[in-house]
Amino acid sequence: MKPLLLRAGLLLALGLPACTKETAPGGVFLRVRNASPSPFTALVVRLPAGTTSYGALGPGQSSEYHPFAQAYRYAAVEATVANEDLRHQPYDYVGEQPLAPGRYTYVLDVEANASGQGRHLSLRLENP
Length: 128
Description:
Immunoglobulin-like, four-stranded mixed beta sheet, four-stranded antiparallel beta sheet
């Protein structure tokens, strides 16, 4: 009985350091960085696995990481910028592969629409 307990304790001790938030099985952690020169307010990220409010985010700032059961390289994002509601809206996730467990950053910027009328949010994924 003692050798079994000793082996179980050794396996547990060796396995724990590898199981951090960053590599937790099934865990995807997302933060948002504001790459624009304008502050964001009411920032919300919507994914099929859930919706998370990131609140306000100043120019150049990054939010805290938030857990998601599943995420993709892009998401629906809504933010208020200078009293204007802007969004990044994907069509769907057909054919997309979920992100592997880890920490990721959605980098958001404000860009002019192709028509020259109005603005929208652009989104780029970083994996630090």
